[in-house]
Amino acid sequence: MDITDVILHQHAEQRRMFAMLDEIPRTDTETLGAVWRRLEILLETHAEAEERYFYPELLRLGTGAGDADDVEEEVEDAVKDHNDIRDAIRTVGRHEVGSDDWWQAVIDCRVHNSDHMAEEERQDLADFRQHADLTLRHEIAVRFLRFESLEAADGVPPRDKDPEEYVGTGGRPQH
Fold first, then answer.
1. Which among 114, 94, 92 is positioned nearest to 103, based on CA atoms?
2. In a domain? residue 118
3. Domain annotation covers residue 174
4. Roughly how many angstroms between the first and final C-alpha of the chain, as a whole number?
5. pLDDT by residue (tens digit) across 61-82?
6. What angle do CA 72, 108, 75 make, to 5 degrees?
7. How far apart (Å, rounded) are the C-alpha atoms in residues 89 and 108?
8. Staple partner for 102: which of 24, 59, 95, 162, CB 3.0–4.6 Å?
9. Is the separation of the CB atoms in 60 and 172 below 8 Å?
10. CATH number, domain at 72?
């Protein structure tokens, strides 16, 4: 098990769940709401697990990959992206499920998430594969999945993080 593979798999699941929303009849608000709630939990538990277990190790080992200037820029941007996704999720929650405003908010969330995943796959995951050995990649995957599994039933409360402070503390919890 490799954390980079776990993250890629979950990215595929996120894409699949957004696509499911496309195929649910717009009048079936009960199903739309249920699928959205499941996706919302996945998005936040995934982001929080990355921030707890993946990014601190990336900050420690990475150097910057793809089109990132350096690892600090990579991680700061990723945390900012997570905050943008959290904001988009909150916006979805302010609208009636299935309404035009709800759909627009879901689309906005999808765009933020898609942009983030593409960047993360091109930069962060490549950087980590280049600098982390397989043992560490396995250990992080286990911690990451344990956290997500424990939190998946109810999700975790979304809490924005200051990207600069996050990078400045090496990804340690902010108070």
1. 92
2. yes
3. no
4. 32
5. 999 888 888 999 999 999 999 9
6. 5
7. 9
8. 95
9. no
10. 1.20.120
User: What are the φ and ψ backbone dihedral angles of 37, each rounded to 5 degrees?
Assistant: -60, -45
Tokens representing 115?
A: 């942009």
* Cα–Cα distance for residue pair 1/138, rounded to 1 Å: 5
- The whole-angstrom distance between residue 31's C-alpha and the CA centroid of its chain comes to 23
d(CA 9, CA 26): 28
Task: Report the pLDDT value the prediction gives residue 111, as an integer from 0 to 100.
Answer: 99
Nearest Cα neighbor of 117 from 94, 85, 157, 73 is: 85
pLDDT at 172: 80
- What pLDDT does residue 174 have? 65
pLDDT digits (tens, 9 = 90+) for 100-124: 999 999 999 999 999 999 999 999 9
Residue 160 near residue 81 (C-beta atoms within 8 A): no
Q: How far is CA 103 from CA 44, 89, 146, in A?
A: 19, 12, 32
pTM, 2 dp? 0.87
- Within a domain: 41: yes
34-43: average pLDDT: 96
Domain contains 164: no
* Single-letter residue type at 34: A
- CA dist 72 and 35 (Å) reads 35
Counted domains in the chain: 1
- Look up the domain containing 115 and give its range: 3-155
Closest by CA position to 54, among listed 113, 131, 112? 131
